[in-house]
Every structure is written in structure tokens, then in C-alpha cells.
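Example for tutorial group B:
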């Protein structure tokens, strides 16, 4: 790794950092109109302090602070390799393509950087070769019939591969986000042949990792960070190069991502993919053995029996009337929609034998593949000498490992006996998963991430609750930490109005949806569209949608009608647009300028107590003598509300109205905790004040 040269002299890191952020410093020389920000400087000095002393820093930096430069500058000047993890790919790319080139120019000291994403973001040259041959010939790709669209997309990918240096799917802007082709050609750990792959030297994932190993700054996202920690725990090696300095930006998302990565799952797709890849190898390498084909046929049959029988009974035991039609039939429509139903070993008892039979079939394939690598041991010598070909042997070993891992994961899920995990069935569209997630990730995150680092910085615009970091420290297992809170640079008193209507009934009453819809319409008339309307559930969204569409002349964009990125781009480019959306749009979405002048939230975003992970955590906290509502549910909802409302003001020139329709902000005792967490903006209960705000700031208004 190259080392950033130290600045000559005896000045400490904090002093050098202070100079960079001064009104005549390095940033002022390259940024037009640069204005020193007190909060940014304070955060940069705090990061410099922990870099020199070691330890962990919790830094909440309000929107507009400029926190990315506040941690990047001291990290780069320290001369140490730094690993930066973000919650979203958007921030990853902003840091890599915008912030780091700026600092290369400003600091005048050489450093190298690599952007790392998960395997699935990169094309696999081996899988592309197989797919391309299938499309150009006759037959199937990935088990599905070749369609005309496959042949249309072929030259697009071909041309891209001629010029790409990274193989990153983000460069393929002409490829629809949800196109099935990408799943067939994306790099995948299960199918990777490693060093035995004929394309190994040109592999985009391999080249990315080599660059990262020699880089001073490595930019990842939380998914890859947790995947690496999980792989290290399993003693399978590493994904990210060793590093002793970690910065976690958008750290409020880390618990959710860790919950996903430190659990396990089995799905119909995962089983089918194993069968497909095994049969594809047999055909491609002329390993036409009846033993393996009989083993894959048994797996397919046992999988069909188990998963089709599982859907209804698990849902029937959930106690939720709306789910009695069965998990697989509850939720079909929209992108990102899902249903999760908790189960116990007792609930699965009548299906245990079917599940165990599937385990046995998977273990049978594992054993058969092991024999296939040893031709002399094969009955009747019907198997070709696969072991003599290292490519085939490596591919067989990967399939054997996958079959064994699937069997072990399924047995763990069937037994459902580890009290540290919660077990549930999840549906996404027509896909069905069995999952186990850790109830408490605090010890896991501490052991797998923070304890490996000499320096850790956790930062976000939303980390503290009630002015304290106690909540996030408890959730992430943090014992000792330096703490810093930096207020937003925005003038909320001038830029924002907070509207809390008095006429909306309790969300617990049937009248709420109709009243909320009427209120949304009245607000949008005054804002003339240009709004995000953020809902806590699809049910409310679907109730409000037709009323809004009938009452307003503005373009209405609805989550589920197109992929997320397409909806955001359409919102930015469409005058007076309105976006109706749920949780996935509450964070990580930036729309600067007049295109967004209003954010409306229907209800306080409490996590559903019917969600399996939330329910298990509530039970665990209460069983331990805590108050789950006050100590977990309210803080979690406060952070979510801050994120949702934070979509509105992203720049000093932005102006707009924040509206929260939920009367519990005013009527319940805990409402004061929410109000204290909101931006320090003027509060009104009257629509006339909303109308005046838009007339003053936009020269227009309402009705």
C-alpha cells in the first residue's frame, strides 16, 4: 500500500486538519464559494483525535455539515489505510467519484482509492460466456426459455464489455433495472470457480480486490462490510483487505444490515439454483452420470413438496386473519413488498419429515458429487475422470460445498431451537424463504467489526435520541466511545414550516385513512405537487392513492409501478410531481431544489410489532426487565421519522413544509420525545399558514 506523505514539520494531525478547513486552506483554494463551517471543522478535529489516540468515535452530524469531508480529510492525512462503509450505493459513488477527486486536487498528497461492491454488481465473464452461447443457440438460459428480449440485449452487453474497466453493472444505464438477464451473468459466490476459472486473470471481482489490497482508501457498503465479517467468522477467508481504521457512515442502518448477514436462509430459488448449476455442469462437461441426475431430481421433488405444503399451515398459525390464505398468497403486487410470519419448531412439526427428506436429498447430492471427483470409487466406473481436469474438480467441489451448506442451514431452520435467533417465513412477490435472524446483534457486531479495528468512527445525521447516544450504543454493543454532536448548518426557522393538523383522528380508528387522504389533498393543492408522501404501510398507501389521483391534476408516481431508481429520476424530471411511497424511500433519497418542496408523513413510523424480528426483540427486552416501548420502539421510530423528514432540506437554498398527520405527536406523552427530535422549525396547525408559506417562498400557493 502506498503511504500518504506526512506534512513536513512537527505539527499534529488536528492542526493540519484545522488548516485544511480554514478560510484560506486547501479546500478554499479548490471549492468556489467555500465557507468554513464550524461544525465540519469540529467533527474533522474529533476524527483526527481518535485517529491519533485510537478508540471509537460516535459523531452525529446534522444535514449540511459536510461530514464526508470531515472524516475523509483527517483519514487521508493520517497516512493510514482507511475503510469507509456507507449505507447506500449512492453515497459510495458520491465519495468515490466526487469527494475523493476533489481531495486529490486539494490536499496535494498522492493517495489511491478503490470502490468495492458486492459480487452481484459485477459481470462474471464465465457466466456471460455460457449465457451468450445459450442465447445465440437454442435452448434455455438459467432454466428459463430464451426470449426475444435476450437477443436484443446481447449486443448492448457485448459493446459494454469491450470498453468497461470495472464490469460494474451501474455503468449499464441502458439495461433495465429488473431485467432477468443480469441474474444470469452476475458474479456469484456459489458458482465462482476461483483461481481455476479460465477468466480468472481478467475477472472483474479479482481485479477489484487486487486494487483494494493496494489502496489507501477503500469504499464499501454495509452489506459488503457485514458479508466480509461473516466470511471471516466462518474461516472462509476475507472479502475486504485487512484494515485497522473503519469509518461507518449512515451508521443508523448498520443494525438492520447486520441482522440480515449474520443469520441464514433457505429458499426455493436457492435450491433450484443449485439443481440448475449442477445439471448445467453435467451437460457442459459431458459428465452424464445417472447418479447425479437422480440426486438432483430427488432434490427438485422434495423441494416442491416441502415448500408448497409449508406456505398455508405456517400462515394459518400466525394468528393474523389477513394472512390465513397462506404466506405465498398474501402479497403479490409491488417492488419491495414483503410479508414475514414467525414460526416455531412446533408450528413446523407436521412438515418436519418433508423438510428432513429435502435435507437428505441435498446430502445425497453432496455425497454423489464427492464420489464424482474420485472416478475409481464410482460404481461400475460409469463416471469420466473428472478429477483429472482441475476446472471440473473445482466446479464439483463448489457444488458439493453448496449442497452441504444448504442441508446444514435447512436443518438449523427446521429445528428452530436456538433461543438467540428468531425464525420466520418470508415472502417477496411469489418467492418463499425460511429465515433465522439474530435477536441481538450487539455482541456479534462488536466481535466481528469493532474489536478488529484500532480506530472506528460511526457517523450519521441521525444517531442520538433524546440528546443521547445510549440507544445506538446499546444496539451496537458499544461500551466506551468519544461522543460528538454537531447541529445542522441549515436555518430551519427560515427554510421550513412544520405542519401538525388537528383534524385527523387516531391512526387506530377506521376513519384515519379517509381523513389522511383529505389532508394530503389539501396540502398538495397548496404545494402544487412537488411532494413526497411517505406511508408506514402499503394498505394506507393503496387507500389514499385513488383519492389523491382523482382530486389533483399533478403527475402521481406510486411505489411499485416502476423500480425505485426510475421513480426517483422521473420525480426529479417531472414538474409538480407527487411520489407516494413507503419505507424504502424514507432514506437515501436526495432531491435538491424546487422539485421537492413538501414531505408528508402519514403516521409515526413505529416498526410493526407483528414483524418477527421486532416482536422477538420486544420480548427479549421486556424479559430482561427493560421497557421495550420506551427503550426500543420509540427510539427506533424517532430515528426513522428524522430520516423521512430529512428528505426535504438538502441544501441551504431548499425550502418547504414538513407535515406529520399523526395526532399522537400532540396527544400522547411520548409525542414530546418525537417533537424534541424534529428540526427547530416554526409549528402550525393551520392550512392557511401552509398556504402563506408557499406564497412567500414560491410566489404562488394554493388553491
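The residue assignment follows.
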Amino acid at each position: 500500500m502506498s503511504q500518504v506523505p506526512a506534512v513536513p514539520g512537527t505539527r499534529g494531525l488536528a492542526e493540519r486538519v484545522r488548516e485544511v478547513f480554514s478560510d484560506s486552506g486547501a479546500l478554499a483554494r479548490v471549492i468556489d464559494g467555500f465557507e468554513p463551517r464550524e461544525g465540519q471543522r469540529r467533527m474533522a478535529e474529533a476524527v483526527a483525535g481518535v485517529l491519533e489516540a485510537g478508540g471509537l468515535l460516535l459523531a452525529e452530524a446534522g444535514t449540511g455539515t459536510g461530514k464526508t469531508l470531515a472524516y475523509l480529510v483527517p483519514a487521508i492525512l493520517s497516512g493510514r489505510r482507511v475503510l469507509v462503509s456507507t449505507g447506500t450505493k449512492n453515497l459510495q459513488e458520491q465519495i468515490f467519484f466526487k469527494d475523493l477527486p476533489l481531495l486529490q486536487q486539494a490536499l496535494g498528497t498522492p493517495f489511491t482509492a478503490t470502490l468495492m461492491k458486492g459480487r452481484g454488481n459485477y459481470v462474471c465473464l464465465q457466466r456471460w460466456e455460457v449465457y451468450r452461447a445459450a442465447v445465440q443457440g437454442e435452448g434455455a438460459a438459467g432454466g428459463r426459455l430464451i426470449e426475444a428480449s435476450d437477443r436484443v440485449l446481447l449486443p448492448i452487453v457485448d459493446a459494454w464489455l469491450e470498453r468497461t474497466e470495472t464490469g460494474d453493472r451501474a455503468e449499464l444505464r441502458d439495461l433495465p433495472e429488473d431485467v432477468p438477464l443480469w441474474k444470469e451473468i452476475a458474479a456469484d459466490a456459489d458458482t465462482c470457480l476461483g483461481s481455476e476459472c479460465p477468466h480468472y486473470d481478467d475477472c472483474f471481482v479479482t481485479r477489484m480486490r487486487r486494487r483494494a489490497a493496494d489502496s489507501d482508501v477503500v469504499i464499501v457498503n454495509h452489506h459488503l462490510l457485514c458479508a466480509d465479517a461473516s466470511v471471516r467468522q466462518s474461516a472462509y477467508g476475507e472479502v475486504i483487505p485487512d484494515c485497522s481504521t473503519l469509518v461507518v457512515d449512515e451508521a443508523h442502518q448498520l443494525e438492520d444490515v447486520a441482522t440480515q448477514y449474520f443469520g441464514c436462509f433457505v429458499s426455493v430459488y436457492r435450491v433450484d439454483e443449485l439443481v440448475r448449476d449442477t445439471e448445467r455442469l453435467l451437460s457442459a462437461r459431458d459428465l452424464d452420470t445417472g447418479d447425479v441426475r437422480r440426486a438432483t431430481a430427488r432434490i427438485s421433488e422434495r423441494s416442491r413438496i416441502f415448500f408448497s405444503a409449508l406456505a398455508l399451515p405456517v400462515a394459518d398459525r400466525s394468528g393474523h386473519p389477513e394472512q390465513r390464505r397462506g404466506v405465498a398468497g398474501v402479497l403479490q403486487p409491488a417492488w419491495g413488498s414483503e410479508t414475514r410470519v414467525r414460526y416455531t419448531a412446533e408450528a413446523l412439526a407436521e412438515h418436519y419429515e418433508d423438510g428432513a427428506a429435502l435435507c437428505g436429498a441435498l446430502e445425497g447430492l453432496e455425497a454423489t458429487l464427492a464420489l464424482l471427483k474420485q472416478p475409481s470409487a464410482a460404481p461400475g466406473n460409469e463416471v469420466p475422470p473428472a478429477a483429472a481436469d482441475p476446472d471440473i474438480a473445482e466446479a464439483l467441489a463448489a457444488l458439493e460445498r453448496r449442497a452441504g451448506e444448504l442441508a446444514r442451514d435447512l436443518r438449523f431452520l427446521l429445528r428452530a431451537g436456538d433461543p438467540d435467533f428468531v425464525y420466520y417465513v418470508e415472502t417477496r412477490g411469489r418467492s418463499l424463504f425460511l429465515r433465522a435472524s439474530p435477536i441481538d446483534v450487539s455482541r456479534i457486531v462488536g466481535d466481528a467489526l469493532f474489536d478488529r479495528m484500532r480506530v472506528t468512527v460511526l457517523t450519521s445525521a441521525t444517531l442520538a435520541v433524546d440528546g443521547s447516544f445510549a440507544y445506538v450504543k446499546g444496539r451496537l454493543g458499544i461500551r466506551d466511545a468519544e461522543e460528538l454532536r454537531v447541529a445542522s448548518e441549515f436555518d430551519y426557522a427560515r427554510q421550513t414550516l412544520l405542519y401538525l393538523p388537528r383534524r385527523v383522528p387516531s391512526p387506530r380508528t377506521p376513519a384515519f385513512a379517509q381523513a389522511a387522504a383529505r389532508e394530503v389533498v389539501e396540502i398538495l393543492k397548496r404545494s402544487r405537487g412537488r411532494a413526497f408522501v411517505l406511508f408506514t404501510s402499503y394498505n394506507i398507501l393503496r387507500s389514499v392513492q385513488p383519492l389523491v389521483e382523482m382530486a389533483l391534476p399533478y403527475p402521481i408516481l406510486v411505489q411499485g409501478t416502476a423500480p425505485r431508481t426510475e421513480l426517483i429520476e422521473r420525480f426529479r424530471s417531472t414538474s409538480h410531481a407527487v411520489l407516494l411511497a413507503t419505507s424504502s424511500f424514507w432514506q437515501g433519497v436526495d432531491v435538491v431544489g424546487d422539485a421537492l418542496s413538501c414531505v408528508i408523513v402519514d403516521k409515526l413510523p413505529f416498526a410493526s410489532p407483528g414483524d418477527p424480528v421486532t416482536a422477538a426483540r420486544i420480548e427479549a427486552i421486556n424479559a430482561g426487565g427493560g421497557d421495550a416501548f420506551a427503550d426500543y420502539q420509540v427510539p427506533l421510530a424517532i430515528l426513522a421519522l428524522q430520516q423521512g423528514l430529512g428528505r426535504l432540506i438538502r441544501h441551504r437554498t431548499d425550502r418547504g413544509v414538513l407535515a406529520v398527520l399523526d395526532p399522537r405527536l400532540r396527544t400522547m406523552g411520548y409525542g414530546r420525545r418525537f417533537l424534541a427530535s424534529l428540526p427547530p422549525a416554526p409549528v402550525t396547525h393551520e392550512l392557511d399558514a401552509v398556504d402563506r408559506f408557499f406564497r412567500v417562498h414560491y410566489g404562488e400557493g394554493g388553491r
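The chain has a mean pLDDT of 87. Compare this with the pattern of hydrophobic and polar residues in the output above.
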